[in-house]
Amino acid sequence: MLRTDTPVTVHRKDYTPPAFAFEHVDLVLELDPARTVVTNTLRFTRQAPGPLVLAGEELELVGVSLDGKPLADARQAADCLTLPELPAQGTLEIVTACQPAANTSLSGLYVSNGNFFTQCEAEGFRKITYYLDRPDVMSTFRVTLRAQRAAYPVLLSNGNLVSERELPDGRHEAVWEDPFKKPAYLFALVAGKLECIEERIVSASGKEKLLQVWVEPQDLPKTRHAMDSLIHSIRWDERRFGLELDLDRFMIVAVGDFNMGAMENKGLNIFNTKYVLANAQTATDADFGNIESVVGHEYFHNWTGNRVTCRDWFQLSLKEGLTVFRDQEFSADMMGSESGRAVKRIEDVRVLRQVQFPEDAGPMAHPVRPDSYEEINNFYTVTVYEKGAEVVRMYQTLLGRDGFRKGMDLYFQRHDGQAVTCDDFRAAMADANGRDLTRFGRWYSQAGTPVVAVRTAWDGADGSLTLTLSQSCPKVGIETHPGTPDKLPFHIPFALGLLDADGADLPLQLAGEHQPGATTRVLDFTEAEQSFRFINLPRGAEPPLPSLLRDFSAPVIVDAEYSEAQLTFLLAHDSDPFNRWEAGQRLTTRALLQLVADSQAGRELKLDPALVAALRTVLNDQQLSPAFREQALTLPAEAYLAERMGVADPAAIHRARQFMREALARALQADWLAAFEANATPGEYSPDAVSSGKRALRNLALGYLADSGDAAMQALAGAQYQSADNMTDRSAALSALVNTFAPGREAALADFYQRFEQDALVIDKWFALQGMQRGTVGPQGSHAGKHTIDTVRALMQHPAFNLRNPNRARSLIFSFCAANPAQFHAEDGSGYAFWAEQVLALDAINPQVASRLARVMDRWQKYALPLRDRMRAALEQVAAASDLSRDVREIVSKALAP
Ligand code: B3K
Ligand code: ZN
Question: Which of 79, 339, 598, 653 is a plausible cystine mate for 625, CB 3.0–4.6 Å?
Answer without folding.
Answer: 339
